[in-house]
Amino acid sequence: MYELGQGVAQNYVEAANWYGKAAKQGLANAEYNLGSMYERGAGFPIDTRRASLWYGKAALKGLETAAKAFRRLKAASQQK
Hints:
Structural class: mainly alpha
Helix content: 55-70%
Radius of gyration: 12 Å
CATH class: Mainly Alpha
Order of helices and strands: HHHH
Number of domains: 1
Number of strands: 0
């Protein structure tokens, strides 16, 4: 909602706040969304290490999109 500005003004900081609350409850989609925000630098500086951390947490819960993102970031970091 806040990340995309659906029904409210777009606000990445507020989106991250709500995703964080949901991630603390163990929701894989929220963990994935936090990873995506860190990877894109939406609301804060780009941080691929934190993105990988959140993608990894979601991947361990079986979220395939998170597993793909985790593998992609891992491969990119090994090419540097």
